[in-house]
């Protein structure tokens, strides 16, 4: 598989950019959720049905979706403002408590009484093998009053942000109206707007500065398989033309990533040697990319830091985070 490789990020430059993270402010708007893990050991198959019996060991709860993006921003040393929608339920209360415990302001969470807080329950073994997943969610569009509350919150917070982020899990928060509002603020303020897309028609995200689809999302957008870096290049160029965005970063799993932007394009190889869990890896990429961009990184520099952060997080269980020290340790002379 031939490819043009992006230039290596010098360690001194990487550390200098990471050192700027504490001065970066990121506005994260999107679908917040809880990731619940029921962890146990599988010792036998059920006599009632051909399914494994999981002997419960412990439960684990993590911030997910847009909340995980904000958590990664904070873990890396940046300041995150989070805007999302929750239900009037126990999971919303748990989510707010977790945000407060991680020194993230939960006041941007808007309650919609006719919805439930998105929660993913995964039954996994102690060897990190997933047995089943149960999703609790509302798939209807936001009611008008909740959508207007989201827009008002964006209007109040956008001016103070160095970078705007749209974290879309297709749960209804990022409507056409909300995306247009974010794009408007990006245009007026000159602040970059980064979007992690889920809608196959990527024209939905017009006005964004950069899209960060994974390879499956990119394939859905362009209508062909991405099996090589050349395929990724073709897909990224097509997405830029169709969506009218400035750059596209396609995450390719074990094949690393592909970046196309105005100044050039190329690939970066994956940095991890052993994958434990890819849950939330895209959130880490988005958060790191946003912080690096706010810190003044060029697109290929921001991509290199995001790629390195992803390599750390996929070696950890669940929707994990990366610290500035974790990332800095990868860039030594």
Lateral strand order in the biggest sheet: 5-4-1-8-9-10-11-12-13
Q: Describe the global form.
A: globular
Give me the number of helical elements. Answer: 10
CATH topology-level name: UDP-N-acetylmuramoyl-L-alanine:D-glutamate ligase
| CATH superfamily placement | Ribokinase
Tell me the CATH architecture.
Answer: 3-Layer(aba) Sandwich
Question: Which CATH top level class fits?
Answer: Alpha Beta
Radius of gyration: 19 Å
How big a fraction of the residues is strand?
25-35%
Largest sheet: 9 strands, mixed
Write the element-wise H/E pattern from the N-terminal end onward: HEEEHEHEEEHEHEEHHEEEHHH
Total number of β-strand segments? 13
Distance between the termini: 30 Å
Multimer state: single chain
Average pLDDT, rounded to a whole number, is: 92
Structural class: alpha/beta
Q: What percent of residues adopt helix (DSSP H or I)? A: 25-40%
Task: Provide the low-confidence segments as ranges.
Answer: none
The number of domains is: 1
List the helices and strands and how they pair.
Layout: H1 11-19, E1 25-30, E2 32-45, E3 52-65, H2 66-75, E4 79-86, H3 90-101, E5 109-111, E6 119-125, E7 130-136, H4 144-157, E8 163-167, H5 176-189, E9 193-196, E10 210-211, H6 215-222, H7 229-243, E11 247-251, E12 257-261, E13 264-268, H8 281-294, H9 299-313, H10 324-329
Walk me through the structure.
- By secondary structure, the protein is α/β, with parallel strands linked by helices.
- Helix content is 35%, strand content 26%.
- It is globular, with a radius of gyration of 19 Å.
